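Weekly modeling sync, notes
Attendees: AB, CL, MP (scribe)

Item 1: holo prediction request
CL wants a bound-state model with iron/sulfur cluster before deciding which constructs to order. AB pointed out that an apo prediction alone won't tell us much about the pocket. Agreed to run with the ligand included and paste results into these notes for async review.

Input as submitted:
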Amino acid sequence: MEKFTSHTGVGIPLRRSNVDTDQIIPAHWLKKVTRDGFEGGLFEAWRKDPEFILNKSPYDKATVLVAGPDCGTGSSREHAVWALQNYGFKVVISSRFADIFRGNSGKAGLLAAQVDDKVVERLWEYLESNPGATVSVDLEARTVKAGEGPDAIEDSFTIDDYTRWRLLEGLDDIGITLSHADAIDAYESKRPGFKPATL
Amino acid sequence: MGRTLAEKVWDDHVVRSHEGEPDLLFIDLHLIHEVTSPQAFDGLRMAGRPVRRPDLTLATEDHNIPTTDLDKPIADLVSRTQVETLRRNAEEFGVRLHPMGDIDQGIVHVVGPQLGLTQPGMTIVCGDSHTATHGAFGSIAFGIGTSEVEHVLATQTLSQAKPKMMAVEVTGELPEDSTAKDLILALIAQETTGGGQGYIVEYRGEAIRKLSMEARMTICNMSIEWGAKAGLIAPDQTTYDYLKGRPSAPTGAEWDAAVAYWDTLVSDDDAHFDKVVTIDASTVAPFVTWGTNPGQGVPLSASVPDPASFEDPIQREAAEKALTYMGLTAGTPMRDIKVDTVFVGSCTNGRIEDLRVAANIIKGRKVADDTRILVVPGSVRVRLQAEEEGLDVIFKDAGAEWRGAGCSMCLGMNPDQLAPGERSASTSNRNFEGRQGKGGRTHLVSPDVAIATGVLGHLASPADLPELAGA
Ligand code: SF4
């Protein structure tokens, strides 16, 4: 996984709550057996509408998605994270993430930055009145910034320490765990005999 | 201080715990299906890693499986590739697979319990968000993403930060014409789709104790629909009776040892819950959703709500969008909503008890003109059991379609889909936009409401059905 320290890119305001993973990538796309090529299915149903914000320049170049609360609810499909990444998104900002989506993002290297409701609202307003404006996210400092002057938006975001560390270091989870193989062996040797097995 | 049921199960699975890091948990059972596993197996292959514990892993084919023409190869080429990829991976990595045509094939969350693989006090994961179903046995069971699937395949563990603990106290008794599905839909409407975020929830109280295992699975299945990490119910005699004699259940002295352990799996009286919510079961009436998330529901006797009645601006906007998508007008009595398709099935309500209830209601009646009822058993064994009891004949006589086992119209990855604008009453768990087919409109309901709706052609409960002649 690539290291993630900071990112600055065009922001897109997605004025919706409950952006569920079925909307991010519909089920029929899940038949693919690779991790790439999902960008065409990103928000497929909504993109049918020419007025949908992602269809409009310069928002179509966005790399920072700003969504309403309960972002990524529903199905556990990690394809939702891949679809966002395949399209070019590096950061998703929301006031509340669904657990599985947040976990999947951290694993795949997409930064899920949780901010206050008010920050989302201010970013929406700023990005709507300044199409193509950028949003900067600093993972080291856990800050999100946009705009300049007296109206500049600058606030902190939350992300758990462990995910932050892994993103900053670009660490592969499986490698980390396998370095504790002794502990796994020890646990396995004391599992009770009544636990079921499939083979 | 005492511990909650979930904390006990959690503690018993900690492989490694370190300040400032999530716990490394051992996984007792890893369930796999064709949709969320191919990229995980690919990752293993690329890194040259084996599956650490094939003996704790089980694969089934469910999401893509057609429910008709079962003797022919899958017509949809992409679906076929995905299923064939799973078969190749299972073979290469030595994982047990129940493929299409196998007697133990079915929806992964129906198959695990049915085989007796799902037992109390376990950690169970699957690349599917409805894994919480297995929590009905007193296990910590939750859905994971594909990277985590790869992690479990490679290490049989997962790093997890310990969620907060919530108790859902279900007081009172469910009225006779209300079901577990109505209870969970009412709870989600009360707590909203984000209410369980960050929690493992324990459903408890007299009303829960009285539920059968299958009804408990219906409840736990929908934990994710209000955002909970997992949902579970303490095991008791009902759990043991369900398990005893199943193929993978312990026997003899192992059974006794297991029961002795399982008996300890209750929340201590002085256990601390970070949050407690209460719902009075005796007030739960047949419940239906009107919107595009499972929290947008009302009693069947109510009307489509007016978006203006929501104080929270976000909920108001969500309601407006939902009504537009659903083609509904505020104030319309729910019972006046005409339905085109009824789907009885899924890991929420596709088990034998559900089919018995459904058959019992439709017996001697007919599916309404312009309406179709699809009955899709959750597994091959459920289908065979139903056929042995003659339920298939009852459904067919009434004009309902009797299908093969799988996820089917729950998510419309196979050909069972709604057409744009088509409206369904569905016993599944998600009413998201397009979930059952592009432009399809879903009302989530219990099997009882589903069948009554199919007979009358509009949302209805069995109480609305005319008496049968001679009955
Ligand atoms: S029946 Fe529906 S919810 Fe259950 S596993 Fe299948 S697709 Fe998922």
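Recorded for review: Residues 117-129 of chain A form the longest helix (13 residues).
Action items: CL to compare against the apo run; MP to circulate these notes.
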